[in-house]
């Protein structure tokens, strides 16, 4: 057994997972920013 | 993968502290570094490095599996420290840091369990074994899912934050006890099977450390951005509260000078 | 602090005595658990060449599972009354030490869990029938484990108190935490029944350390957990 299929499945899960989570964070950040007046968009205040 | 790159690239080009994105100059650099590191990690992990004598190609899963679990521990460690500071100082900042770090750490914990299972199948012949590390990591995973659930409790925000902080501290202590007890429990029957006969050559070790660096940078980027999202949510809640106060003041139900409910 | 603890424990036990939920609902639920385990595993199931039936061999683990599930229900009620009236911090305002509240509630819960253990233990022994080896080890195990479940359980019950999702979230929180206790109690009980007794001692130590840790953390953290603003 060479194990390539397992490697592919494992890597796909991790990197697709990272991609989806990143996309979710960015989208959520944008949506929230738009709902706030500009002066409250500072992240550390 | 390509989709992700586009998404991040797009985000980076539109970044800026007070625009609609979540990026800033420093995090742009961090984002690019994260992407480059992941690119290199994939290149070395899947292409340049070779198969291992005992494990064969499955050894490549190590380069994401071990960095994942270390990143998860890093995240839970940050939750612990941030929770302690929150209980001391009571500043919203640290509460949000604790929650953000835990969420990302849970994600990496899921990566650890998944890659562990698909590594186990070609190596052990089964997806799941009652291996001490695998078992205690699973318990840790469930425990922090509970922590995240507490962060969404239907309670007053400050009460919820305080309880979550206590949990963030206790959970870390639990991880240690659970780890040792499971280790002990399995120690009665067998030795830990992980990586016993593994011999990593130079390029394999390099791929492994590259994975470690890549995941640490990715973690930092995610943590900053997840924190910013939480911060925005917090600001939005405050803004809505302000609006409600203004409205009620206009209705005359609140004393305009003191803000006290009459 | 001790005086406060006694006060709280008395109050909780008095409420329990007047409603009798532990006696009339949780205890039967525990016994039902044991019955269901018997159905699921079948009393005739035997590994080829083994002396005892599977049910007899795993009886210690099954007993502790039944105790855990029953204890979870008892713990869920520990804060029900204060939380429902939004009176969690009333105790504190009344000048009662939070550490005392924690100890008192833990003691009240421990007493109920102990009662459950005695009855469920007898039931499990009758139903699954393993021969008892060391009564001394068994009694010690039961006592230490009771304290462990009560201390950790009370702390976690306070975390979810007053929430609408309490009933689903509390088990999710407390069961993984009690993993070491389940492992330790099961193996120590196993040693008490099938020997050798010395196998049980390290596990008792583990559960004792666990208990001390949770009593310590509970006493320190209860103030933060009870505040309601």
Q: How do the helices and strands line up, and which of them pair or pack?
A:
The complex is a heterotrimer of chains A (45), B (262) and C (229).
Chain A lengths: L3 H32 L10
Chain B lengths: L1 H12 L11 H24 L13 H28 L2 H33 L7 H19 L6 H31 L14 H50 L11
Chain C lengths: L1 H18 L1 H21 L12 H4 L1 H18 L3 H5 L5 H4 L4 H31 L6 H26 L5 H12 L1 H16 L6 H26 L3
Helix pairs in contact in C: 1-7, 2-4, 2-7, 4-7, 4-8, 4-10, 7-8, 7-11, 8-9, 8-10, 8-11, 10-11
Shape of chain B: globular
Give the count of structural domains of chain C: 1
What structural class should be given to the helix and strand makeup of chain C? mainly alpha
Q: How would you characterize the largest beta sheet of chain C?
A: none
The fraction of residues assigned to DSSP E strands of chain B is under 5%
Main interface: chain pair and counts: A-B, 36 and 52 residues
Q: In CATH terms, what is the fold-level topology of chain B?
A: Four Helix Bundle (Hemerythrin (Met), subunit A)
Rg over CA atoms of chain B: 23 Å
Overall number of strands of chain C: 0
Number of helices of chain B: 7
State the helix count of chain C: 11
Low-confidence stretches of chain C: none
Beta-strand content estimate of chain C? under 5%
Poorly predicted regions of chain B: 1-20, 190-196, 258-262
Radius of gyration of chain C: 18 Å
- Number of structural units classed as domains of chain B: 1
The main pleated sheet of chain B reads as:
none
Secondary structure: helix percent of chain C: over 70%
């Amino acid at each position: 057994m060479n194990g390539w299929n397992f490697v592919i499945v494992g890597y796909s899960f991790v990197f697709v997972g990272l991609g989806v989570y990143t996309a979710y964070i960015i989208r959520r950040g944008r949506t929230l920013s738009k709902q706030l007046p500009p002066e409250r968009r500072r992240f550390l205040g | 993968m390509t989709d992700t790159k586009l998404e991040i690239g797009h985000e980076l080009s539109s970044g800026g502290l007070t625009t609609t994105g979540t990026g800033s100059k420093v995090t742009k650099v961090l984002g690019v570094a994260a992407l480059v590191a992941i690119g290199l990690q994939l290149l070395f992990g899947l292409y340049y490095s070779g198969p291992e004598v005992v494990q064969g190609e499955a050894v490549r899963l190590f380069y994401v599996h071990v960095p994942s679990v270390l990143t998860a521990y890093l995240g839970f460690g940050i939750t612990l420290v941030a929770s302690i500071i929150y209980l001391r100082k009571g500043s919203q900042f640290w509460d949000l840091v604790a929650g953000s770090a835990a969420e990302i750490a849970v994600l990496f914990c899921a990566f650890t369990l998944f890659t562990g299972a698909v590594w186990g199948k070609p190596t052990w012949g089964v997806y799941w074994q009652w291996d001490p590390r695998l078992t205690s990591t699973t318990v840790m995973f469930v425990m922090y899912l509970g922590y995240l659930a507490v962060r969404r409790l239907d309670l007053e925000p400050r009460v919820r934050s305080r309880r979550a902080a206590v949990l963030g501290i206790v959970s870390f202590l639990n991880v240690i006890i659970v780890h040792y007890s499971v280790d002990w429990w399995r120690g009665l029957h067998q030795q830990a099977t992980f990586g016993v006969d593994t011999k990593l050559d130079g390029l394999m070790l390099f791929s492994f450390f590259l994975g470690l660096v890549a995941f640490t940078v990715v973690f930092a980027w995610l943590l900053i951005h997840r924190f910013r999202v939480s911060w925005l949510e917090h600001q939005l809640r405050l803004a809505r509260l302000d609006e409600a106060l203004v409205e009620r003041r206009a209705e005359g139900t609140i004393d305009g000078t003191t803000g006290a409910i009459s | 602090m001790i005086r406060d603890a006694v006060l709280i424990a008395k109050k909780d036990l008095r409420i329990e005595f007047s409603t009798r939920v532990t006696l009339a609902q949780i205890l039967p639920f525990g016994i039902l658990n044991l019955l269901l385990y018997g159905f699921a595993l079948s009393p005739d199931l035997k590994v080829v060449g083994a002396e005892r039936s599977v049910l007899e061999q795993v009886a210690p683990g099954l007993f502790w599972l039944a105790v855990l599930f029953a204890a979870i229900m008892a713990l869920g009620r520990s804060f029900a009354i204060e939380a429902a009236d939004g009176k969690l911090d009333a105790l504190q305002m009344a000048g009662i030490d939070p550490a005392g509240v924690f100890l008192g509630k833990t003691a009240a819960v421990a007493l109920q869990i102990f009662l459950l253990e005695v009855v469920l233990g007898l039931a499990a022994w009758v139903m699954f029938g393993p021969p008892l080896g060391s009564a001394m080890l068994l009694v010690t195990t039961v006592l230490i484990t009771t304290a462990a479940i009560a201390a950790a359980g009370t702390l976690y019950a306070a975390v979810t108190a007053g929430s609408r999702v309490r009933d689903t979230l509390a088990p999710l929180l407390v069961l993984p935490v009690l993993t070491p206790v389940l492992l330790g109690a099961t193996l120590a009980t196993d040693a008490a029944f099938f020997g050798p007794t010395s196998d049980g001692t390290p596990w008792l130590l583990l559960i004792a350390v666990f208990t001390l840790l949770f009593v310590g953390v509970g006493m320190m953290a209860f103030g933060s957990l009870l505040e309601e603003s």
